[in-house]
Design goal:
Blueprint lengths: L6 E3 L10 E4 L10 H12 L4 E7 L8 H20 L3 E6 L2 H11 L4 E5 L4 H13 L4 E4 L7 H4 L7 H15 L17 H4 L1 H4 L25 H15 L3 H4 L12 H5 L5 H10 L4 H24 L11 H9 L11 H6 L5 H13 L4 H13 L4 H15 L6 H12 L20 H7 L2 H7 L2
Parallel strand pairs: 2-3, 2-5, 3-4, 5-6
Antiparallel strand pairs: 1-6
Helix pairs in contact: 3-4, 6-13, 12-13, 13-19, 16-21, 17-18, 17-19, 18-19
């Protein structure tokens, strides 16, 4: 049984006697997927088929070829795994707010289940779906170790305030092994796949799909949940022990490199946490990694869930808005337009190196993301422009773009979210400052610049 704390019911309609649909969105995997397990449990209770559906939104904002390619390879693997369980994954094209209600009607669905995503666009889609259906609609948080809606019902001030709540609940949520789906005994009606309204929406890889840019050859990471589990095991054996020492050195291979898998839901954060806890790595490293995996990540989900302006100036705390407004007119020594930022052509070789790392790998080192975003504030005409530039570059360049972690990190860097006032400076006001010399004291900047020049 799935913990009730993970389940959010959008309405109180009783379950009908038709098939169950699991609307897969954020958690694109078969193993360790509590939303999928819950959907199967509900289908088994009434002896009905289970259908998994994923919607491809045409023209998804700034959809990049690299991200699309990574996601689709993972979904194709998930489809094969589900087929072995006698469950179909329907990858449909179209706006979910239209496609999902239509599918619900066409197959006479008795229950709609989705996973959890705090982003504004997805929340809006769910609200729209809810208005168009007359069946129960349940959401299961399969992404967070501790469910976001359960752990807090408001926007948390900082990591400190959320950490206290997480520490009290963590053992309860990690005490049991994660349940898995089994082979589903109830066959789907073949007529569904021949229904014209469904068939013409099925995704076909042979047909052109609108994405921007060209997918570069990324060889350092392979998509899919099997590769994700292999990457986790490599990190546990080779990287975790020294994580607390090497994680903030961009020249060292000290990070887990698991964020793309977590973003696309090809790997469960709960699975990682269970494995980290069983590890014999140094306690300092286990503690540091779990802080990032659980506290910081779930703080980002909390930020996006309860602050719909998470990607704009309006989402900043009052003190940050005040100090940035005071310094709006401060002269900028350097100012750059979008092409200069995109191509990494500023006066700062360290910033350029960070941007080029992202362009080459689809991933920038975590420490450099902070410096990178803060310099965008320093080199643009306003905090609004800085947010727009940073969000655009992050969402189109990072494999894990369009993610609460990215929005919270940018808002922390530029707008003081989850931070406190610091000493006052031009342009930044009381926003925490970072500069080249500070980075130079922490790691070999020359080596990093050379690597990505």
């Amino acid at each position: 049984m799935i913990d009730q704390e993970r389940i959010y019911r959008y309405n109180s309609i009783p379950q009908g006697n038709g098939p169950v649909i699991c609307w897969m969105q954020r958690d694109q995997r078969v193993r360790d997927n509590r939303a999928l397990v819950y959907a199967q449990e509900k289908a088994l209770e009434i002896k009905q088929p289970l259908v998994v559906v994923f919607c491809l939104l045409p023209g998804f904002p700034d959809a990049a070829a690299l991200q699309f390619q990574f996601m689709m390879k993972g979904l194709n693997e998930a489809a094969l795994s589900l087929k072995e369980k006698n469950i179909s994954l329907l990858i449909l094209k179209g706006d979910p707010s239209m496609v999902i209600p239509e599918l619900v009607r066409n197959i006479d669905c008795g229950l709609l289940v989705s996973d959890f995503n705090p982003l504004r666009m997805i929340q809006g889609c769910k609200d729209s779906v809810l208005k168009k259906i007359t069946i129960p609609f349940h959401e299961v948080d399969a992404h967070n170790v501790i469910p976001a809606r359960f752990i807090s019902q408001k926007a948390e001030f900082s990591a400190f305030t959320l950490r206290r709540k997480i520490e009290k609940a963590l053992d309860d949520f990690l005490k049991n092994e994660i349940p898995q789906i089994t082979r589903h005994p109830f066959e789907q009606a073949k007529v569904w796949l021949h229904d014209e309204s469904i068939r013409h929406k099925l995704y076909s890889p042979e047909k052109e799909w609108p994405v921007t840019g060209s997918a570069q050859d990324i060889s350092w990471i392979k998509p899919g949940e099997r590769s994700a589990l292999e990457a986790l095991q490599r990190f546990l054996v080779q990287g975790l022990d020294l994580y607390y020492i090497l994680r903030n050195d961009p020249n060292a291979k000290g990070q887990s490199e698991l964020s793309p898998y977590l973003h696309f839901g090809q790997l469960s954060a709960e699975r990682i946490a269970l494995e980290i806890r069983k590890s014999q790595a140094r306690p300092e490293s286990r503690k540091a990694f779990l802080e990032e995996l659980i506290v910081r990540s779930e703080l980002a989900d909390n930020f996006c869930l309860y602050n719909p302006s998470y990607d704009s100036f309006e989402g900043f705390p009052a003190w940050a808005k005040t100090t940035l407004n005071i310094h709006r007119g401060d002269p900028r020594t350097y100012k750059y337009d979008m092409p200069a930022f995109e191509e990494g052509k500023t006066h700062d070789p360290l910033w350029n190196a960070a941007q080029r790392e992202m362009l080459a790998r689809g991933k920038m080192h975590g420490f450099m993301r902070m410096y990178w975003a803060k310099k965008i504030l320093e080199w643009t005409g306003s905090p609004e422009e800085a947010m727009a530039v940073a969000v655009h570059l992050n969402d189109t360049g990072e494999l894990d773009g369009w993610d609460p972690n990215g929005y919270a990190g940018i808002a922390w860097s530029i707008g003081g979210v989850h931070d406190r006032p610091w000493g006052e400076r031009p342009v930044f006001g009381k926003i925490r400052f970072m500069n080249f010399q500070g980075c130079k004291r922490k790691f070999d900047t020359g080596k990093y610049i050379k690597a990505w020049s």
